[in-house]
Amino acid sequence: xxxxxxIALAVLxxxxxxxxxxxxxxxxxxxxxxxxxxxxxxxxxxxxxDPDVVxxxxxxxxxxxxxxxxxxxxxxxxxxxxxxxxxxxxxxxxEIEQKAGVKGSQNTKPFFSPLVVIARxxxxxxxxxxxxxxxxxxxxxxxxxxxxxxxAGEAKTWQELQGGTSAYPELGGTVFIKTTDPTTSxxxxxxxxxxxxxANGSTVVSDDAGIERTAPLMKKLISVQGxxxxxxxxxxxxxxxxxxxxxxxAYEAQVASLLQQKQDPGDMVVLYPDTTVNSPHTFVPISxxxxxxxxxxxxxxxxRSLVVRHGFxxxxxxxxxNTAAAPHTAYLKSxxxxxxxxxxxxxxxLMALAARAKG
Length: 359
Description:
single chain; 6-stranded mixed beta sheet; 359 residues
């Protein structure tokens, strides 16, 4: 009897082991196997926090942990502590590579987002009436940078633009666009890149003479703002809450994401500058663990759909963005036609302009 019981128990144990191998030995789907740490621009924080993004990345074998930094300040961090850096444009990537010791790494540009100026409706009306903007609808239009920079150079006030009247008493003081700190933040730096191009006769500033020509205007654009923030997130949230300045520099993705989430945009008007510097978000792998992550963000259909849901334009993904933007064309330009795309100055020149602007 003992022998029979022993054999039976052995059979049960073997069967149990086989069952464990068959049922539990297979890796469950969606279980991430590789944890990577990255430093990102704050405008991508909500994307990486999205539970659907977390799951989509886990399905591909990744757990992604992020910290935020101004794109132009990333090269000042201890980059050896990160597996990747993800600034908001390609310009800071060379500095990041050099600091991280990965010069010549396989960078990826999965998506981009043009800069826009969001305005209170009354502010947009004043700009339109004074020839600084053209409206294409109630909530969208074009900022005419040449005339706007002329007014900024003359330190025009809202009262002057209104012809001395007080039709919109909430608009007071000098007319300016609230930007981020151009010495650390991508959006602030690219605003100076664009403005300096227009001020330099539609030519990229490339030498000391160009810096000297444009620096006084750049200083007026920045110094009038007072305290500067490190990311567009703060000014944008202040604007949406009903506070903040009447003109705010933002990424189109922030507006598109807000609209797709069906949040109330209030009296927002979206003005696309008639001149702009392209801003491709550039994934810089620092460790081998993150080498394929940038490519996944650029090519995986699920991740691309989530990129669009957060307002970004996938590289070579015009149709995808247009489909998502179709219900919101009162605010968004699906096609970026009629906008002059210009190159940014070198990092050295742009940082010199930024330093002079803040000086």
